[in-house]
Please model this.
Amino acid sequence: MLTTNPGFERIGEENAFAVLARAGALAATGKDVINLGIGQPDFPTPENIVDAAIKAMRDGHHGYTPATGIPELREAVAADLDRRFKAQVNPDNVLIVPGGKVTMFTAILMFGEPGAEILYPDPGFPIYRSMIEYTGATPIPIPIREENGFGFSADETLGLISDKTRLIIVNSPANPCGGVTPKVEVDRLVKGLEAHPHVAVMSDEIYDQMLYDGEEHATLLAYPEIRDRLILLNGWSKTYAMTGWRLGYSVWPDKLYDNARKLAVNAWSCVNAPAQFAALEALTGPQDAVAAMGAEFDLRRKLVVDLLNDIPGVSCITPKGAFYAFPNISGTGRKAKVLASELLEGPGVATIGGPDFGTLGEGYIRLSYANSQDNIREALARIKTFLT
Ligand code: PLP
Model:
């Protein structure tokens, strides 16, 4: 009889990958499937970035790098945060990691253990809860509500803090709802945290360049009063269409950095060396591809919301960030996961049921509009026909 760490019995999943696999299996049988399930840009990685990786390989960057990342890249991350937010970050606090997920994994592992509580957004990125449960800590959901534009409420979040709370996870712009928490709310959260010096914050800002309608990103880095307990999660996957490169970075306070570095040494040694040179080019090279992708996402956002609101029983507020719409489907009389499954197996449209992002996701489905306008039109026409 083998005995394993019981945490593995509690570990969860990200259903977007199961839907991706099912959509692929259906497509392999000849079914015409439109994928609005997976959250990844449909654009190729910009060419200058690909070229930088090829050059790095040709230049012989084939070996290990420092576990924390190549120094030039850590400096470029700090310079980028300064350029975009006037945030002063010491490159010594920057850790280059293989993907955005790795920062949440590391932070949750660092703070989670039986008896501890960790607050996380619900609906929210499913790996937060999964990893909290793995550690044996108690996951405490922060409700993310449609009436708040799918941003978090500072008062509600602060009200959930107890003396057992170790870590609060926030995410804006957010997956799966596309919500953006207004700066006044972030101000209020930071102010309220003064009374809870025992609580660390992990701010997942991976969609920080995907904002619409003139919204400005309210980074948690802008608050010096919490910098000694703030972990910033960011990366290249979404902004630069680099999901498959597995590249991310985090900013850690001095007192936590070395523990994060040690986990890197134990688990992945370093990030793929050519990918780090690609990441360097992404940050220091021309940014026009980011702007072009953003402009196209904005058009699709309006298109998807208009088409959703034209379907009986469906209503969708206009998301202000990321590339997701989170329509309320309660008027269809169907459970969200049932509807998502019917849409995939029937008309061949992949979406994700809201409950895959938390219990408060019932009554909603997530559509990623990282797909062409033609595909979005066709997918929404199929959904409308199915529901009418
Ligand atoms: N954080 C959020 C909110 C996400 O939506 C995602 C990916 O979907 C990630 C982190 C993980 O990003 P990566 O693919 O770089 O691991």
